[in-house]
Amino acid sequence: MSTDDDLRADNEARRLRTLLGAPEHAPREPLSTADEALLARILATPVAVPAEPARRPWAARGPARIAVAAAVVLGLVVAGISWQSRGTGAQAGPPPVLEFSAGTVDDALADTLPSARDTLTAISGAAAAQPATGGSGVQRIQSYAWYLNFDAARQDAELATTFTDLRISPDGSVVSREVRAPALDLHGDVIDPDRYPLGGAASVDRLPAGTMDADYAAQLPRDPVALRDAFLATDPQCRASTDDEERCLYYAITDLYGRAVVPADLSATVWAMLADEPAARTLGTTRDRVGRTGEAVVMHGPDATDALRLLVIDPATGQLLSWELVGTGLPGTVFDEPTVTSFQAITSAQWVPER
Does residue 51 lie in a domain region? Predict the structure, then answer.
């Protein structure tokens, strides 16, 4: 490469080191021919204005949104940082998997972890002991998420780090604001979570009354068996097999906490229900992507894309802190190791006055 190209590459590397907190002087291995060609192509490509994040439908509810969740993992297209698939010369891979106190993702894949029944029963009891609280007005749910989009035809992937501010009014109208957030740091954690909503390309969806059911959480049963039936009733496919039931329950839980301010009595019912599921296993405690400590529960499924479905739960309140999917592959690709394919950290869920 020319001297100008070298200077531009060094300046870009320095900027990335500053952003990620990496050492200023790191050993540098010679680039392969493929790497040289890729870098030259990147340097020669004009910087484009970031596009708005893709707009997503909100009408689906409960386990029926499994298709939406799958689309998030496999088909969400958001303008962002492209990285080459594994096995190519250059890659900026997904974040490292979380670390757990009582096992590993390999243990989860091998189905050697103990049942989460006792852990979930204790969390259910803690949630039931919380003071009863009501709410009115607008439900505001804020979260930070990292999604992976894989293009099988091109054999590459795109990652999207997104801050979402979701507001659901009593009439079911929705305002959803998504902001492109900085990449994760070298440990897979959110960089400065108090500032990331301020920058990046933004997209705002304003959807009419009836788009979502603002009373969804209030109307769900407070009996574990009845709640399980309600979660499975919205999609006939949920009853097709035991694996389908487990998948539906997982996505129904993540859907609930991602779209509603969940009262403590409902949280108590959710975890009492999950405690009776044989697929729910404990990984002990963990620290999520925004630095909160919680109990980690995992469900092992047969599909490569979401082979491990993780929940990180606040043991004191019963609120869901985060969920993560860990895959062993994507269509046309087998990963070298278990890989995080998406996560969402729910940073706030509260009632706010109507504007």
Answer: no
Residue 12 in this model has a pLDDT that exceeds 80: no
Rg (alpha carbons) of the chain, rounded to whole number: 21
In degrees and rounded to multiples of 5, residue 169 shows phi and psi of: -85, 160
Summarize the confidence of residues 31-37 as an average pLDDT.
53
What DSSP string describes 131-179?
A: PP----SEEEEEEEEEEEEEETTTTEEEEEEEEEEEEE-TTS-EEEEEE
For residues 17 and 164, state if they share a domain: no
Same domain for 70 and 164, yes or no, is yes
**Which ranges of 185-320 would DSSP assign to H, the alpha helix?**
216-219, 224-233, 242-259, 264-275
Question: What pTM was estimated for this model as a whole?
Answer: 0.74
pLDDT value at position 249? 97
- Of 285, 341, 304, nearest in space to 123 by CA: 285
Task: Look at the block and give the residue holding tokens 């979380």.
Answer: 98
Cα dihedral sign for 304, 100, 180, 248?
positive
Residues 267, 128, single domain; the answer is yes
